[in-house]
Design a protein that fits this description.
mainly alpha; about 60% helix
């Protein structure tokens, strides 16, 4: 992956984290949203109460964290068949969604499953294909320990 693409993606994750921190500390915990809102959709929510309701619903039962973990697991399942080949596009999209949901979950009170989903997605995205590491198709025949003088057992 070119350095500018990696930098853009890292900046997108940082911007996402900044937005989550802004919503948590400058809006939710600062008391900018109304206190007397209906507790359910049946009672009706509108305007700022709808924003507050959506924010609160996102971290009740650690929903953001579970979303991150589910996306990361789906990304791993999609990438399992790509042994030695580049990670499929669908797996990368799910992994990036898991990264962003994980960042939001870490900031917005869903840190346990969000941390696992974030790290699992990060591991998947850090797995580079042989062509991206500089090795081509013909260079894959050498064993990993060949230059280390490691002998086989048995």
């Amino acid at each position: 992956m070119p350095k500018c693409v990696a930098l853009k993606r890292a900046l997108a994750v940082l911007a996402s984290a900044a937005l989550a921190f802004l919503l948590r500390y400058a809006v939710l915990e600062a008391g900018l949203l109304p206190r007397d809102c209906g507790g359910s959709l049946a009672e009706g929510v509108d305007g700022l109460c709808a924003v507050k309701w959506l924010l609160v619903q996102s971290f009740i039962d650690q929903r953001l964290g579970w979303l991150s973990l589910a996306c990361a697991l789906l990304a791993v399942l999609a990438a399992i068949g790509a042994h030695g080949r580049p990670v499929p596009a669908a797996a990368r999209v799910l992994a990036w969604l898991a990264i962003h949901a994980g960042v939001w979950g870490l900031v917005l009170y869903s840190f346990e499953p969000a941390a696992v989903g974030f790290m699992l997605a990060l591991l998947l995205l850090s797995r580079a294909a042989p062509a991206q590491r500089g090795g081509g198709e013909g260079e894959g025949a050498e064993q990993p320990g060949a230059g280390l003088r490691v002998e086989r057992l048995g």
